């Protein structure tokens, strides 16, 4: 049967669509999440609530319950996860990169680092990290940046900018460009040199992962695009794997909670907010 014959009527189009129902693609969300071909070995697939492979130049968005553990994986060493977080209950509360650096007295992201909002609460905590190559300084790429470097920045084109993709993800939840704060980037590191310049350090190599714990119900936005300081002339980015499952929020016995008086206060503020809403 020719391609034209497959869709030359409503019934043939329906049959053609149903015949493709079990097909898979290299980059896609897996439904149910337990069907992920890349489910983490240390996680029961039945407990997964989100499983997806984000394409190079792709994006994703998801609402996660408080206590969810989110694992981002870089299978090739070229992923760059540009991450923005919102309080899913009140999206006026969102990631504040300045407070994320200031409250822990640490500008470099790593294990036990809290990701804070501007309201003094912890949106998420980095619970595990085998990469160590991250960035909380530069944000993601913009349309102007990509047009200068690649000659194109269309979100549907071959060189989408991270900002454009995050705008698309935010729009799925009724948010606009003006609602987007600066984000953090995972898997492609940046360090501040002695003279104050920012130096791109690249990735730690393939097979690394970062786990985040949602301390409040979260709206998660992800764009998987090259880091703005990546010196390579080509648009180089690899796939990003995402898995999430129900776990527990950070508690007083966790080292992240008691790492400093400022962090303890931020976690107490978070618990107070959550308990007032029956979470």
Model description:
This protein has 279 residues and is of the alpha+beta class. The protein has one domain (56-276). The chain contains six helices and 13 strands. It has helices spanning 3-6, 10-19, 97-102, 143-150, 162-171, 261-276, and strands at 48-54, 58-64, 68-74, 81-87, 114-116, 122-129, 134-135, 184-186, 189-192, 198-202, 208-214, 218-224, 240-246. The strands form three sheets. The protein has a six-stranded antiparallel beta sheet. The N and C termini lie far apart (56 Å).
Give descriptors for this structure.
about 280 residues, alpha+beta, six-stranded antiparallel β-sheet, five-stranded antiparallel β-sheet, 6 helices
Tally of helical segments: 6
Residue share in β-strands: 25-35%
- What are the segments in which pLDDT stays under 50 over at least 5 consecutive residues? none
Distance between the termini: 56 Å
* Averaged pLDDT: 94
Gyration radius (Cα, Å) is 20 Å
Order of adjacent strands in the largest pleated sheet: 1-13-3-11-6-5
Q: How many runs of DSSP E, i.e. beta strands?
A: 13
| Class by SSE composition | alpha+beta
Task: Work out the helicity level.
Answer: 10-25%
- Shape estimate: globular
Largest sheet: 6 strands, antiparallel
Listing every helix as H and every strand as E from the N terminus to the C terminus, the arrangement reads: HHEEEEHEEEHHEEEEEEH
- How many domains? The number is 1
């Amino acid at each position: 049967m020719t391609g034209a014959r497959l869709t030359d009527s409503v019934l043939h189009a329906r049959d053609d669509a149903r015949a493709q129902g079990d097909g898979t693609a290299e980059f896609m969300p897996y439904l149910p999440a337990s069907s992920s071909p890349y489910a983490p070995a240390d996680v029961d697939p039945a407990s997964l609530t989100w499983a997806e492979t984000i394409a190079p130049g792709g994006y994703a968005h998801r609402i996660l319950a408080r206590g969810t553990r989110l694992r981002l994986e870089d299978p090739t060493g070229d992923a760059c996860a540009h991450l923005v977080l919102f309080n899913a209950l009140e999206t006026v509360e969102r990631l504040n990169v300045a407070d994320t650096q200031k409250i822990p007295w640490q500008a470099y992201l790593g294990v036990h680092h809290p990701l804070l909002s501007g309201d003094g609460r912890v949106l998420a905590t980095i619970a595990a990290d085998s990469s160590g190559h991250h960035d909380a300084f530069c944000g993601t790429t913009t349309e102007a940046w990509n047009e200068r470097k690649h000659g194109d920045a269309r979100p549907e084109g071959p060189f989408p900018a991270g900002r454009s993709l995050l705008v698309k993800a935010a729009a799925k939840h009724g948010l606009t460009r003006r609602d987007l704060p600066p984000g953090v980037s995972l898997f492609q590191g940046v360090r501040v040199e002695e003279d104050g310049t920012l130096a791109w350090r690249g990735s730690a190599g393939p097979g690394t992962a970062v786990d985040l714990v949602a301390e409040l119900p979260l709206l998660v936005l992800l764009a998987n695009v090259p880091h703005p300081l990546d010196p390579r002339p080509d648009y180089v980015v690899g796939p990003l794997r995402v898995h999430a499952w129900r776990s527990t929020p950070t508690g007083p016995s966790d080292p992240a909670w008691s790492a400093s008086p400022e962090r303890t206060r931020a976690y107490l503020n978070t618990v107070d907010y959550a308990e007032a809403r029956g979470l």
